Amino acid sequence: MADQAAPLETEALAAASAGKPVIWAVASGKGGVGKSFIVSNLGLALAQGGHRVIVVDLDLGGANLHTHLGMRQPKFTLSHFLDGREETLANLCEPLPEASISMISGASDHHEIANLKYFQKQKLIRHLSRLDADHVILDLGAGTTFNTLDFFNVADHGIMVVVPEPTSIENGYRFLRSAMKRRLMRLSAETGAQVSSLLAEREEGGSLRELVGELCKRHPKHGAQMRQRMRGGNLHLVVNQVREPADFQLGYSMALVWKHYSGRKPDSLSFLNYDEAVIKGLREHKRYLSSNPNSRNSVHFRHLARTLVEAVGDVRS
Amino acid sequence: MSVPDYYELLDLGHDATQAEIVQAYRNAIAAFGEGSRAAYSLYGDAELAAIREEIEQAYNTLRHAGERRAYDARLGGRESSDNVYYLAARHAVASPCSGGQMRAIRKSRCISLQQVADAAGVSARVVQAIEEEDGDYLTAIEDLPALIRCYAEMVGCDVSDVMESYPLLNA
């Protein structure tokens, strides 16, 4: 399994360095925290900033990105690509009329679509890297299936969305730990064996940072490999549905806590407010950013778009 | 035995000011406090208590100039970590930006009026006028946009948010 996982990242890395789209993966661990809301409006904010954007609904089996973008019945879905009816992802792109943004819908009744086979996942990742856009934003499903974790890990930047509730925070950390474990599976067999043996010795608890530190002490070469592996991947934290000042402090605290646990700080931290206009807009099939251009959240989305574009610049330099 | 990195623990650069050290300590204690929401499911109570002890040790070393000097000498030539987060973060400012919002952000970072005034080369009264949106008092300022920009940068607000919607710049 570890060997099978290796080619996925190599392809995406090669694409990124060849001037292809920056791929963002938006995850949450728990459903209902606003991933699709964020993917659609972040995409709109980037498009309004002059970038060419494609948003992709990878919530296979639970897709609703098209609803947030005010699009009703998508003509094509990822099913068409995955079962070979369409050769390229470009054929599935449905553009929005007034902005440089298109959508690839995941809506489907195909009950097997939520469980991609390995070769289908590889094919999808290859084609995502070939899309003609500046930014490709993936709306991942909730939960920690291998496919979801792999899409998160193979993206250039991962965006973790939480709401200020214990279940969301718990599921968010669970997702990040699982994604990190999955990433560590791609260590060399020798290093992987050392990591497994160390994990078996430890009691429940203890941070990833301590694990790396211990491995570095015992086997510096393997420790260095593990540290390097953990450093890969850029992580951005978004706290959605903020209602009170304590929720801002929570976001800052989560950034500190994750830094202490994993050894690496998130690359950015952003906030979005709870807003009843979100549900109202969905009911009326209106895009939030377009209908509420002066709302606080619209300011936050523009700020988020700028922050993320700057992060791309930092990574590339 | 290697020297623990107190700056890294408190999420500070090696050139942190006293105000930054105090603010970082408060944030760290909040993050790793007993029953912290942010630490839920990652750290248990015993682990949080141990981390808080380290934080207290770090803070008590860095807050006293003499102890900090001695500690810095023990650190040797170790460079500031680029893993520092919080104090580098810029606050988004909701539109319309208000002086009151910016004051709240300044205070949350333990930055005094005088510190901003010194950085901008104006009096503390001028900085107060910015936060009170006192247009009459600020008519004497030759280059108000430059001053507002300096204020926003010093205090840690998102500069473009402020320049776009601070009322006295967009009347």
Description:
The complex is a heterodimer of chains A (317) and B (171). Chain A is α/β, with parallel strands linked by helices and 317 residues long. Chain A contains 14 helices and eight strands. An eight-stranded mixed β-sheet of chain A has the order 3-4-2-5-1-6-7-8, with helices on both faces. Chain A is globular and about 60 Å long. Residues 1-16 of chain A have low confidence and may be disordered. Chain B has ten helices and no strands. The mean pLDDT of chain B is 85. In chain B, α6 crosses α7. The termini of chain B are far apart. Chain B has helices at residues 6-10, 18-31, 45-62, 65-75, 99-108, 113-120, 124-132, 135-138, 144-155, 159-165. The chains are: A alpha/beta (317), B mainly alpha (171).
Keywords:
heterodimer; A: 317 residues; alpha/beta; 14 helices; 8 strands; 14% strand; globular; B: 171 residues; mainly alpha; 10 helices; 57% helix; 0% strand; elongated
Topology readout:
The complex is a heterodimer of chains A (317) and B (171).
Chain A: H1 2-17, E1 22-27, H2 35-48, E2 53-58, H3 65-68, H4 78-82, E3 94-95, E4 101-104, H5 118-128, E5 135-140, H6 146-154, E6 157-162, H7 166-184, H8 189-201, H9 208-218, H10 220-231, E7 234-242, H11 245-262, E8 268-273, H12 277-283, H13 288-291, H14 296-316
Parallel strand pairs in A: 1-5, 1-6, 2-4, 2-5, 6-7, 7-8
Antiparallel strand pairs in A: 3-4
Helix pairs in contact in A: 1-5, 2-14, 6-7, 8-10, 9-10
Chain B: H1 6-10, H2 18-31, H3 45-62, H4 65-75, H5 99-108, H6 113-120, H7 124-132, H8 135-138, H9 144-155, H10 159-165
Helix pairs in contact in B: 2-3, 6-7, 6-9
Category by helix and strand content of chain A:
alpha/beta
- Seen as an oligomer or otherwise, the chain set is heterodimer
Count, helices of chain B: 10
Point out poorly predicted stretches of chain B. none
**Per DSSP, what share of the residues of chain A sits in E-state strands of 2 or more residues?**
5-15%
Mean pLDDT of chain A: 83
Through-space gap between termini of chain B: 61 Å
Largest sheet of chain B: none
**Overall mean pLDDT of chain B:** 85
Instruction: Please trace the helix and strand order of chain A, writing H or E for each element.
Output: HEHEHHEEHEHEHHHHEHEHHH
Poorly predicted runs of chain A: 1-16
Report the radius of gyration of chain A as a whole number of Å: 19 Å
